[in-house]
Structures are given as C-alpha cells and as structure tokens.
C-alpha cells in the first residue's frame, strides 16, 4: 500500500530559505500539511531538498504543490543507499500552476533522496512549495 514516507525521524535539508527567514519560509513547511505555509527558497540557478530516511524505502511517486509563478520547469530525483553517491532516478517536468502534481518514480530502494529544481519560472530562480510528499512503502 502506498503512503507518505516522510516521518518525524526524516532529516531534511534545503538549498536556501528566502531571507534566511526559517520561521516563516523554512523547510518544516514542506511537510506540515498546512495550506497556509510554504517553503520559499532564496534566489539562485537551482534549488534542492535532501531527505534522509530512518530506514530504507521503496519510492513510487513524488507529489509537489508549487505556487504558480514560482515553480520549476524541470527537476530530477536522485537517491542512494547508505554512504553511496547519489544517482539519478528520474527527470520530471512540472507545470507552472498551483495544483498538487504527481510524478511516477521507477522502482527505487533508497534511504536518501535529493529533489533538484531547475529552470525556475521566477526570473530570480526562487521556488515556492506548499507540499512535498514522497509516496511508496518501507522496504
């Protein structure tokens, strides 16, 4: 059965936070299920989110809800097990809108994921995400 794999023990890191204001725009807002909060990156050519899971997982889908105008036109998902180097799992191509978008992921067993967002719709390269979900099952 597919369910959200991000749990309180999942360690997350992000490339940047707008004006370093983690209280208002920090990474915790990616997973809080609150429609009023979001992660807002600072400007830059690409942005990323790294997730380190407490156990091995089998990813099947990635769900992302951007703020229209602050989305990514191209992204890729990388993963690894243990201390291995990250390797590309899949490229994805989001639409520039406010909808929750679902991207299928080829079968991959990992305990670390990196989601990279490139070619931002925003001129300055900022990305705004209201929800980030990794769906699948524990391996």
UniProtKB/TrEMBL annotation:
Cell location: Nucleus
User: Can you say what this protein is called?
Assistant: Nuclear receptor 2C2-associated protein
Q: What is its main location?
A: nucleus
What does the function comment of this entry state? May act as a repressor of NR2C2-mediated transactivation by suppressing the binding between NR2C2/TR4 and the TR4-response element in target genes.
Q: Give UniProt keywords alphabetically.
A: Nucleus, Receptor
> Could you name the Gene Ontology cellular component terms for this entry?
nucleus
Top-level division of the source organism's lineage: Eukaryota
Complexes and interactors: Interacts with NR2C2/TR4.
Annotated family = Belongs to the NR2C2AP family.
The protein's matches in InterPro entries, at most eight in alphabetical order, are given as: Galactose-bd-like_sf
């Amino acid at each position: 059965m597919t369910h959200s794999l991000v749990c309180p023990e999942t360690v997350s890191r992000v490339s940047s936070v707008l004006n370093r204001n983690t209280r208002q725009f920090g990474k915790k807002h990616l997973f809080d299920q609150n429609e009023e909060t979001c992660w807002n990156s600072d400007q830059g050519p690409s942005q990323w989110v790294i997730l380190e899971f407490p156990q091995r997982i089998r990813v099947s889908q990635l769900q992302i809800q951007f703020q229209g105008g602050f989305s990514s036109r191209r992204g890729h998902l990388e993963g690894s097990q243990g201390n291995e180097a990250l390797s590309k799992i899949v490229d994805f191509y989001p639409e520039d809108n406010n909808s929750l978008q679902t991207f299928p992921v080829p079968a991959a067993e990992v305990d670390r994921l990196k989601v990279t967002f490139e070619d931002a719709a925003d001129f300055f390269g900022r990305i705004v995400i209201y929800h980030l979900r990794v769906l699948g099952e524990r391996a």
